[in-house]
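Incident review: delayed structure delivery

Summary: a single-chain prediction request sat in the queue longer than the usual turnaround. Root cause was a stuck worker, restarted by the on-call engineer. No data loss occurred. The affected request and its eventual output are reproduced below so the record is complete for anyone auditing the incident later.

Affected input:
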Amino acid sequence: MSSGGTNLRLSWRLGASLGFLIVLVGLCLGLVELGARIGFVVRGLPRPVRVASLPEMDVKLYGLDRLVADEGAADCLFLGGVGAAEGMDPSGFARSYRTRAGRGIRCYNFAMRGASMQTVAMLADILVRKYAVDLIVLGVAVERPQEEMGQILQEKATQEAWLRLYNGTFTIEGWLIEHSAAYRQFLGIRKRFFYPVPPEPQPERGPEPPREQETHRDEELPRPPQSLHAVEKIIRVLPRGHAVVVEMPLRVQVRRRLSGGEAGYERAIVAIAERAKRSEAAFWRAEDLGSIPDEGWQDDLHLNRLGAGLLSAELGARVGDAVHQGIMPDPLGGRSAPR
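Output delivered after worker restart:
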C-alpha cells in the first residue's frame, strides 16, 4: 500500500514536471514568435526568408509583405519577365490611375528577371490566393527566352517547401514558413551567417572574335514566347475583366532582326492578343501607350527609369479611364481606396 502510494506520487510529480516543462517551452516559443513580429526587436537582423534558393523571388515576397504591413492590402500586381521588371513603375501607374479613376490604387511589381511564363503562372495563382489581389497587369515581351535560367527557376520552385505548400503538398517546414515569423527569421539568420549564397562563377574569356565572325548573333535575339497557355492561365486566376495584358516595348531594329522578321513578331503578338480576348482581358499594344524617346531606353530591349515612368503613367491612365467609364470592373470592389 505504502509502496503503491509512493509510486503514484512519483508518477504524479513526473507528469506534473513534464507538463510544466511543456508549458514553459510553449511560453518561450510564444515569446520568440511574438518578438519576431515586433519591428524594433528584429531591426538589424537579416530579413526573414521564405524561398531561400530563389533570392529575387524571396526579396519580392519580403517587399510585398512590407507593403501590406505598412500600407494595407496590395490591389494590383505587375507580373512578367525582365521587361516588366524594369519597365513598369507602380508609383507612376498609381498616380495616373488616381487622376483618371478618381480613387487611388496600391500596386506592387512582382515581375522577375529570367522567369518563364510557367513560373509566373504558378506565382500568380499563389499570390492572388495569399494576398487577395484584385488586378493583374501582365507585361509580355516577344524576346529571346532565357530557357536555361527559366528551367533552373522552375526546378528550384518545385523544391521550395513554401511554394509546395500552396501547390497542395503539405510539409512541416512549409507550414512553419507560412505561419511562423520566428521560423522565417531563423531561416534568414541561417542563410546570412551559415549558408551564404556563393558568388556566380565568371566564365573564362578568350580573345574577342573578329567582327566579321559575329554575323549570326542576330539569330539569338528575341523569339515568340514559349507558352501561350501559361499566359491564359495567368489571366484566369482572377475573375473576368480583372486582368490587363500589355505588350512591352521593343525597338523596331530588334524586331527586324528576328528570324521571322517583323511579320513573325506580329504573328506572336496577335496570338497573345487572341488569348487575352478569349479570357476577356484587356490587351494593349506598346504603340497604344505612346512612344518612348531615345533617352528612355537602357538598351534595345529594356526601358530605363524614364521610359518605365512614361509607359506606366500612360498605362495607369488607360486602366483608370476604363474603370471610370465602366469598361473594366473596379478592381477595388467595395474596399476603401488607399489615400
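Verification: The radius of gyration is 25 Å.
Action items: add queue-age alerting; document worker restart procedure.
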